[in-house]
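Hey, quick one: can you model this chain's 3D structure?
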Amino acid sequence: MATTTIPRQECAVTVLGGPTAVIDMGGLRIVSDPTFDEAGPHGYLTKTRGPARNEDVVGPPDLVLVSHDVHPDNLDERGRAYAKAAPLVLTGPLTAARLGSPAVGLAPWTSHSAARGDGEGDLTVLAVPAVHGPEDGVRDADGHVNCEVTGFVLSGRGLPTVYVSGDNASLRVVAEISRRVPDITAALLNAGAARVPTKFDGRPLSLDSRRAAAAAAVLGADVVVPAHYDGWAHFSEGGVDLELAFHEAGLSSLLRTAPHGSWVDLRR
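Sure thing. Here's the predicted structure for all 268 residues.
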């Protein structure tokens, strides 16, 4: 029986589990951090749940965003194959060098334009910084905490401006992004307070729930969609923690915790 691809949306996002999200905007299908492997051990990490939709149901992308490639919870074997088959992958320079074609490396604060599928000009993808751990974490030879990680800001005429955080734990970085891009209207925030006992004294490698709420306030976004807070054993906080943190911050109206595989409108 033939596989039916999920219909394209005008301007919406669906989180499939882990960091993987499908963003439909400007007539383009954009997939961030594709992870399609089934549950089970992946090196020193354990995946507890597979994706809500597999790659055949998602269908071919127009663009793939890869925040980083060295951790299996952000790019696994099937996700890597999916990305390599895409017409374009945008990521950081070091990641692009490892992935090879069709990956294009973007240094922070540089951008790439892609022709929109709706004929309304270009979609601009701006690469932005991310810190994958505590600010005072030991930096590697390239100056990164843990590894190179890239976030993205998507924008275009008549479209919402969408921030895709990647595995960022730094509110300082969020503040810098908000200062440079003051019109962010929607944010896809990796949360979950990921922790690995052997790294940085077990401190969070991604936003915890309170810092996710603080990031939403700093960004001034109207819509906040959380990602990467479940499906893996190394997350220390989940959806209930996010809802409580946003409630206590008075920001519950911004948070969209739809079931994985359900669409969230990016415009409200």
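One thing worth noting: The first strand starts at residue 11 and ends at 17.
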